[in-house]
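Handout, section 4.2: multi-component inputs.
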Amino acid sequence: MKKKFTRKNSIQDIAEVLQLSAATISRVLNNHPHVHETTRSKVMAMVEQVGYKRNAMASGLRTNKTNSIGLIVPKVSMYIHAEIITIIQNGLHTQGYNLIICQSNDSVEMEKDLCQTLYASRVDAVIAASTLFTTDFSHFDILTDNNVPVIFYDRVPVDPYPACIIRGDDFHGAYLATSHLIELGCKSIAYISGPPVSNIYIDRLAGFKKAMTQNRLPIVKEWLFYHELDADNARKSLHRLFESKPYPDAIFAGNDVTAIAALGFAREKGIAVPGELKIVGYSNDPRSSIVTPSITTVDQFPARIANQIVTELLKILENRNSDVDIEYTQVTIPVQLIRRMST
Amino acid sequence: MKKKFTRKNSIQDIAEVLQLSAATISRVLNNHPHVHETTRSKVMAMVEQVGYKRNAMASGLRTNKTNSIGLIVPKVSMYIHAEIITIIQNGLHTQGYNLIICQSNDSVEMEKDLCQTLYASRVDAVIAASTLFTTDFSHFDILTDNNVPVIFYDRVPVDPYPACIIRGDDFHGAYLATSHLIELGCKSIAYISGPPVSNIYIDRLAGFKKAMTQNRLPIVKEWLFYHELDADNARKSLHRLFESKPYPDAIFAGNDVTAIAALGFAREKGIAVPGELKIVGYSNDPRSSIVTPSITTVDQFPARIANQIVTELLKILENRNSDVDIEYTQVTIPVQLIRRMST
DNA sequence: TTTATTTACTCAAACGATTTCGGAAATATT
DNA sequence: AATATTTCCGAAATCGTTTGAGTAAATAAA
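Output:
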């Protein structure tokens, strides 16, 4: 019978007990001026005592502000996103915003649903890294059309879109990685990466090609693989790649999971890394440094991306109701090659 | 000047256009009976046309139901939680609930804040894996006191708490792991694990001790280490452990990150694994299988935990307003030893 | 034809917090 | 002492949706 809890959870209830009006309670709670110090402390005491907590729905309905930001990521477990989540959450938390983390699981359908839900809950802004397969970004329109600012990062719209865009320099990253392999004497380089549909893989492919052609190396069609970058898919491609000679002397993988899979495959086949085969990954996932040999990769500086997102977001939220026109900033964060034992 | 969007985003606006009352629109949207087919389709068409989306705040305020579930995890990047997030989200999504993922970052303060925020947004229920340092669970009271059901998993309250509890069999897992090492002939086993404050580490410690004493092996105090289980802390403990002989012949690590750190340390010191030193981890993190040698570990079956959570949650939400008394189910999911090359 | 019943809809009151407007009391100014 | 100003607080409207009560029209039953 403990179900009957003291239903002291509205501003009205507190007002009644203290013989005040709800308006006064609200003013105290929002630090408005023109409230007598005596009543203020009386109210605070009662609020404390009954454990009152503001109903965010009622408040948000009235003020048209939720103090919460939606975040859509493909998978929370991916290194870059996990890093970014942590930093963004801390950054926003100190400013009184809370982060609603959502996972699209790389499904466009889910991403659509999440846009709808986030709009329905009237978040103040949305941060998003899209699905690998999102080419049509129109499901984000419900947000932008209704004045909900959107910030894309990492996986961003390829075509112009009214949103802030923060990305890594994928072109240069791939260029650096490929050039590194070429400098080491590699002549036949295989490329296993994501479908060139998402900006990150379009750019990485372009960077790869640039380095190859610049060095007059052939781009062999049979050595280019595009698919979702998980271990299973990687193994399939690797099998195809080593079905018949000549073998490539290097692999540039679109992410570290694929690079690690390549390493495992090489070990099984008795191919020496880096002796016979050099491998470069992408993202500087911590996993790339715990395997033997450790894998050369490209650092994307997720912390810098995250901080940039927070900065831009706070700027946008500040100018929210002012007449300042929203600028759709585009920022590219530089990358860095991390040389390890696999090359 | 595109700021002036057609403000057709309330039920009232649609009602006005169609010369109907808001009530009717609402009834259509909620599939209520007693609405003429003609009007129903007229309304649906208009809703579609103007891209109307229900305001979750207004709806929630009225119905006292948000259709969203809060989830608090220490870190979204941890393998077990990442797995569980994905499964829970999918499970709830099909039932029309959406998941609000929050990360406490293993900070008790943040966890407290998250409880407050989730209560403020009046989620229908909360799922939580606590901080490593949460011994006092009273900040969850704001939820339970106000009839918000709470389900704990993995890291759960040690003392009785009015919530559903779903946990892995940490005691048995540690017992299995330690017994396995003993069966392989290990006599001096070091234990590096989390502070025995959180249930998972209390239980794992107990399981370790049980196996040791059962086999009349001494538990050496200097070989027991308790701290947050990241790579840096692990290395410190390993240094202490191998400061002077005699060296242990096995290490049971509280998680796979620590086990991997031990592996790296052993390689640096030229200690052969599994020859001179055997290593067992915990969690069956995918990382434990990509290192060389691959690491023996304990699988916690995160998918089973997640499915159990979904089942319990839906049961609770179904009985929400019925007079059925809430049962605080306690479920323990079995574990399994995964033997690999490190032992 | 009169009386029930069903159908299709509207009215208006909630939900809980915020905020504009204005009133009363206290204080300051002339 | 009369007026102006400031300080503190309450009444009421509002945000957008839901829902019980009520109403008019259409259909069924008597």
